[in-house]
Design goal:
By secondary structure, the chain is an alpha+beta fold. Helix 1 runs antiparallel to helix 2 and helix 4 packs across helix 5. It has two domains: about 5-95, no CATH class; about 100-195, Yope Regulator, Chain: A, CATH 3.30.1460. The chain is built from six helices and nine strands; from the N terminus they run αβββααββββαββαα. The strands form two sheets. The chain has a five-stranded antiparallel beta sheet with strand order 5-6-7-9-8. Strands 3-2-1-4 form a four-stranded mixed beta sheet.
Amino acid sequence: MPDTSPAADPDALARLRCTAALLACTPALSARLRWADRTVLEIVRPPHPERDHVVLPPCWFRAFLADALRHGVPDELVQRERMERLLACAVDLGTRDGAAVLPGDVVRVPVGHTWMHLLAVSSPVEEVRPIVRSAREPVAEGLPAPGLHAATDLDATVLSLGSADDGPASERAAEALRHLAMLVAIHRLERGSDAASDHPARRRGD
């Protein structure tokens, strides 16, 4: 039987973890998991609309992913097929109440007369914090310090950055978050390369 555990497609699982972390941050966001043109799962806060597909609240979706991340997928065929199907899905984010999804999966949410920008990365907060601190000045000069919201159960972090308007300041905030996310991704790749170079087989030259 092919390996359909979360480790079989870490990028797909990371995408779902980031989605779950974002959904927990704002009620203005929902998500659809789509296979081709068919919606497989919709994640939205109650009250739930009538649908011909499965609808879950964000907390249930998050708990399912956190359990799979910590313990792996149970051997039951139904559970393994369910995870395989989710990992193969495209993720579409939906918004309401004036929120918007900007390029790079940055979510912009109105907060009073200001705007909050959110972007999730699939790294724990203890790894993200020093990267944000070291990059703070060149990345977000003139903007408030980025906030970090730990989703410990998902091994993910949501970066947040406010702006006074939804025009040029919003564009700068979104670009700063995208740049920070890129630095986090580079760090994750470098850490993976270091781990591979320390593998006993690599040290033996096999």
